[in-house]
Amino acid sequence: MPAFDYALVRVVPRPERGEFVNAGVIVHCPEKRFLSARVHFDDGRILALWPGSDVAQLRDNVEVIPRICSGAADAGPIAALGMRERFHWLVAPRSSAIQMSPVHCGICESPETALQDLYGKLVAGTESGR
Fold it and tell me: Which of 4, 36, 78, 108 has its CA 20 to 30 A from that of 121?
C-alpha cells in the first residue's frame, strides 16, 4: 500500500488568537502521482470566531487550493510548479488567515478514498466524506 502525506486547511481569522476552523484537507501520494484537496468554507463558523472577518476574501483563498493542487492554469504561478513543489508550497508554515496543520502521514489503498475519509472525519464531521 502506498504512503501519503496530508494536512488540514485551517481558516484562522485572527492569527494572534490561534483559533481556527478546519476548512479542508490536502492529500499528496507521490507513488500514485496524486495531489488533491477537498475544501468547505463555513461562513457561520468563521463569523462566530471573528464577526468582522472578510468572509468573501477568506473563501476565495480557501477555494483556490484544490485548483492549485490540480495545476489549473487559472490558479496562479504556484499551480505551474511540479506536484511535489505545489504540495510543499501549500503546507509551508505561515502566519496568515489561511494556515495548514502539521503534515501527517498514512498508508492507503486509494489516495482518493483517503482524501474523502479524512475530509469526512476532520472537516465535515462525518465518518465518510461521501
Answer: 78
